[in-house]
Amino acid sequence: MLGGYMISGRRASEISASVEQAVGSGELAPGAVLPPMRELAATLGVNPNTVAAAYRTLRERGVIETDGRRGSRVRARPATAPRDAVRVDVLPGVRDLATGNPDVALLPSLTEALAAAARRNAAHPGLYGYDTVLPELERLARAGFDADGVPAGPVAVTSGSLDAIERVLAAHLKPGDAVAVEDPGWSSLLDLVPAMGLRILPVALDEEGPLPDSVAGALADGARALIVTDRAQNPTGAAVTGPRAAALRAVLAGHPHVLVIDDDHGHAIVDLPLHTLAGATDRWVFVRSAAKGYGPDLRLAVLTGDDTTLDRVRGRYRLGPGWVSRLLQYAVVHLWSERAVDPAVVARSYAARRDALIGALAGRGIESYGRSGLNVWVPVADETGAATRLLQAGWAVAPGARFRVAGPPGVRLTVSSLTEHDIEPLADAVAAAVRPAAGSRFA
């Protein structure tokens, strides 16, 4: 059952540490079945309640999962082994379409923005007790939210989208609660949710966003939160349309206490209109990141939401990091004020690459998707085989296992580094790698 590994310990903390250490070292593989609690208690000579407490701790840390009579087992992707470990090593001479980075040529120079931030700091040094959100940044963020139809609410700043989502989930949910998440979806989010001790309920999607029936099913199964990517969905490129947003709002109308989180990480790289679910329930948050449009190392996201949620997030943030560096806030204020990025230009550049690749693949009988953002999703029957063959042909792509819970297999290709001369050779390589079997979509 455990491949020869012996769980040890007399206390719940020692037993859970023994299992967690073995999972982290690889001695306990993903999917390994743990002994029934009474059996392990008898082996260790402890009370069954002690083992139950250890297993509960492991579940809350995202290491194991329990499935009724099937017992407890190590998660297929335990929190100690992040999905980024499911990757292809990019060797010298291989083109990297796997890591998901934006085109550096489309990112603005940060030289003047950081210099402006330094000048502001020299005039007014950042000290304890100052506002955690710069008034100028709050005004600019609020103006952007208003222009996109995001409901009124207070503004907070975090160190990126994932930081915001984690803090919002922690503000309302407890270990064991279920979260409805897009499948396929953002790999880091699929790691974060179980690492917080929360359960993932996968939600199917198509090019217009989450499917209403799938969302309704997740809510009926007890989801206490729903996370939706409004545009540039990773990995499929889906973007929520007006009719889809209306249908999802109709579903959510019957669940007014569900926490809804809108992730608009594609801000500044898409030109599709925003159709948000913000305000569809009593508890909601809208998150907008600076990473994709202005630089991944610019670790800043602005968010707004209902008063209770934002009050909890801001209060807890003050007890931890305190605030996001005002130097970074000054830099973003400069970039936004100077309109350092033209979203229409950036969006057209990425769209041209996506559309060219999708068209070339269609001409070879290969189905693919990418309505917005940086990525193209190609359904395949055997993603490991497809990724391996592409690597041999000189192209590194991301295996779909990084992004899936229960959905069909596929591979993700990031188009940001492609030139027009790459399209035909890449399409030839993909066609050769995925034939003869064709995969299904991503829903």
Query: What average pLDDT do the residues reach?
Result: 91
**How helical, in percent, are the residues?**
25-40%
Helical segment tally? 15
Tell me how many strands there are: 16
Shape: globular
Largest sheet features: 7 strands, mixed
Radius of gyration based on Cα positions: 23 Å
State the low-pLDDT regions, or none. none
How far apart the termini lie comes to: 34 Å
Measured by DSSP, the beta-strand proportion falls in 5-15%
Q: Which structural class is indicated by helix and strand composition? A: alpha/beta
Strand order of the largest sheet: 4-12-11-10-9-5-6
Main attributes of the structure:
alpha/beta; 443 residues; 3-stranded antiparallel β-sheet; 15 helices
Could you give a quick summary of the protein structure above?
With 443 residues, this protein is of the alpha/beta class. It is 39% helix and 15% strand.
Description of the molecule:
The radius of gyration is 23 Å and the shape is globular. It is an alpha/beta fold and 443 residues long. Helix 1 packs across helix 3, helix 4 (111-123) packs across helix 12 (326-337) and helix 6 (161-172) crosses helix 11 (307-318). It is built from 15 helices and 16 strands. The two termini are 34 Å apart. The model has no long low-confidence stretch (mean pLDDT 91). The longest helix has 21 residues, at 343-363. Helices cover 39% and strands 15% of the residues. A 7-stranded mixed sheet has the order 4-12-11-10-9-5-6, sandwiched between helices. Strands 13-16-15 form a 3-stranded antiparallel sheet, covered by helices on one side. Helix 7 (187-195) links the parallel strand 5 and strand 6 (199-203).
